[in-house]
Every structure is written in C-alpha cells, then in structure tokens.
Design brief:
The chain is α+β, with helices and mostly antiparallel strands. The protein has one domain: q2cbj1_9rhob like domain (Jelly Rolls), CATH 2.60.120. The protein is built from 8 helices and 13 strands. It has a 6-stranded antiparallel beta sheet with strand order 1-8-5-10-3-2. Strands 7-6-9 form a 3-stranded antiparallel beta sheet, with no helix packed on it. Helix 3 packs across helix 6 and helix 4 crosses helix 5. The longest helix has 21 residues. It is globular, with a radius of gyration of 19 Å. The structure holds 2-oxoglutaric acid. The site of 2-oxoglutaric acid has 13 residues, from strand 3, strand 9 and strand 10. 2-oxoglutaric acid (AKG) binds next to strand 3, strand 9 and strand 10.
C-alpha cells in the first residue's frame, strides 16, 4: 500500500518521492520505515542501494532448480522465468520489495519483467532507461538478487558513480539517429559505444559490486551499469533481476523511438502481480495516453512484425 501523501503539488507527483524537496515530501519521507528511509537516502545520493541477506536461501535454491536447463545458450539468460517457476514469480512479487519501492517512490510499483542468469552477462554499460522509460521519468527500478556469492572472477555487476544524476541518455541526447534498414542490435551497439565514450569523457568512476547469496542490489532507472568481464569462464553467477514500473505512467522504449521522426515505441507492460497488462494513464487525469483504436493498431503492428521476423529471419527494421 502507498501511504497517503499530504499537500503534494502536481510537480511533486512527477518526481520519485526520494528526490522531492517540498515540505510535504519531507513529512512523507519521515513516515517511512527505517529500511525504507535507508533505501530512499541511498537512491537519492548514490542511485543504488544494497540490502544484505534479504532473500531466503531456500527460495533461491528452488528458483535455481526450476531454471536449470532452460537458459538460452547464446544470451546466457532466461527471460520471464516467472512464467515457468512459481518461485521466480514469488521473488518478483515479494510484497516487502513491492511495498518498499512503492513507499520510497510515492507511487505503486509493479514487476513487469524478470531475467535469470546462469553466468555473468558481460553486458556493456547502459542505463535501463534506454529500454524501459516512463513518463514521468525515473519511475522504473532494477532489483538484482545474488543467487550465489559474486566475486571478481564470475562477472560482478558494475556501475558508474554519480551517473544517476546525468540527464536522460536517449538516442537523440547521444546524437544517434535511426537509419532505415538498421536492426535493433546494430542500433544498440551504437548506443553502447556512445555510452562508453561518454563515461570516459566525463571521467566517471567505475565500481564493482561484491555481493553474497541472498543480497539485493536496487538501482534507479538512470544509473549506468552492466556486467563485468567473467575472468574465470568455468564459473556460474546465478542471479535474477526483476524490473519494476510504477502505476499511472506512460511507458516506452527510447532505443526503438525516433522522436524527430515522430516515432514512439510504446510499451504495454505486463503486471506480474495482477497478471494483466497495464494500460497507460498519466498523472491520474483519467486521460488515456492512447485510444483503444491506437492500442489495437499498435498490438497488430507488433504481431505483424514478429511474424515477419519469423518468416524472413530478419531483425526488426525502421
Ligand atoms: O546481470 C548483469 O550482469 C547485468 C544485468 C543488467 O544490466 C540489467 O538487468 O539491466
């Protein structure tokens, strides 16, 4: 449950609670539990928070058993394991996490995606905002759970200090324009290169996260992060990340959007707790960000594109 907030302005509602500055926000922050206050403080100051020994080891062992043999060989991961494992779903829907996020953001959180990893991903530095963006901005969070101890050898998560304070790094902001015929993998590699150059230019400091089994690492939407090199290729790095959105937002994928050409890649996130898709509203105005007709057209386009990809074997193009 989200606590009632007193005397918040409309502008306040467009900002996660932990970043608000009004008197009403201070009062609401003061009402948070000790652990919520810690997470709110950490997200504001550092862009991440670490909760040691937060997840029960028996639940973790069950998820690991359920996922065994189901990871994709090429991508080293299993998307949306909540569909095949009641335990992975129970972790994504952990009421303590959902309530904690809802209270520190001042808006109800819901899990919409899980990714389970068998090994370190070596994923290049990125911010989740390029994949999962909300309007108002910043209403998205990653919650990563270590299913075994993470060392310097099995590909720890890394992040760049203070990167959560950077402006939103969309294609437009990075000077990437979408080319006709370009597939999303090529576009993403342009994005990764631009981010690599940008953090170098700014001289941001790279840090690795050491975690033990059951620890939870929470990061805010804009934090630049990724998976470090797996030094010992024989190691596993079992883990699950759950991505959360917040209600009453409009959701989109900036990587596949081209604002200059009027193309918005909208998302219809699946609420794992309520087992239903979330249709957008924005700031509780009752205004639907998209009409039922446009929604039907968007869904039809997605279906046609994925069918075309299956038939031609080609990636999505613009
Ligand atoms: O687990 C990893 O190595 C990276 C995960 C990640 O970057 C993400 O989920 O956004």
């Amino acid at each position: 449950m989200v606590r009632q907030m007193s005397a918040t302005s409309l502008a306040d509602e467009t900002i996660p609670l932990f970043n608000r500055t009004t008197e009403g926000a201070s009062l609401s922050l003061g009402e948070l539990s000790e652990i919520e206050q810690k997470v709110a403080h950490d997200l504001k100051v550092n862009g991440y928070s670490l909760l040691p020994k937060f997840i029960d080891e028996a639940l973790i062992d069950q998820i690991v058993a359920d996922c065994d043999g189901n990871y994709s060989k090429s991508e080293r991961r299993l998307p949306d394991a909540f569909r095949i494992s009641a335990s992975a779903k129970s972790l994504a829907c952990d009421a303590r996490v959902v309530s904690l996020l809802s209270n520190v953001y001042g808006r109800a959180a819901f899990p919409f995606q899980t990714l389970n990893f068998e090994q370190g991903t070596e994923q290049a530095t990125h911010s989740d905002t390029i994949h999962f963006c909300s309007m108002p901005y910043q209403f998205m969070t990653g919650v990563w759970v270590a299913f075994e101890d993470v060392t310097e050898n099995n590909g720890p998560l890394h992040y760049y200090e203070n990167s959560h304070r950077l402006p939103l790094l969309t294609n437009e902001a990075l000077g990437i324009s979408l080319k006709k015929g370009q597939d999303s993998a090529q576009r993403y590699s342009e994005y990764e290169n631009a981010i690599r150059d940008y953090v170098e230019l700014l001289g941001l400091e790279r840090k690795e996260v050491r975690m033990n089994k059951g620890d939870v690492f929470i990061w805010s939407a804009n934090l630049l992060h990724g998976g470090s090199l797996v030094k010992d290729k024989n190691t596993t790095r079992l883990s699950q990340v759950t991505h959360y959105f917040y209600e009453d937002c409009f959701y989109l994928t900036p990587l596949n959007s081209d604002i200059k050409r009027g193309k918005l890649a909208v998302r219809v996130p699946f609420d794992v707790v309520q087992n239903r898709f979330r249709i957008w509203e924005y700031l509780a105005t009752g205004f639907r960000a998209i009409s039922p007709v446009m929604l039907t057209v968007s869904i039809a386009k997605v279906l046609v594109k994925s069918l075309a990809r299956r038939i031609t074997g080609r990636e999505e193009s613009f």
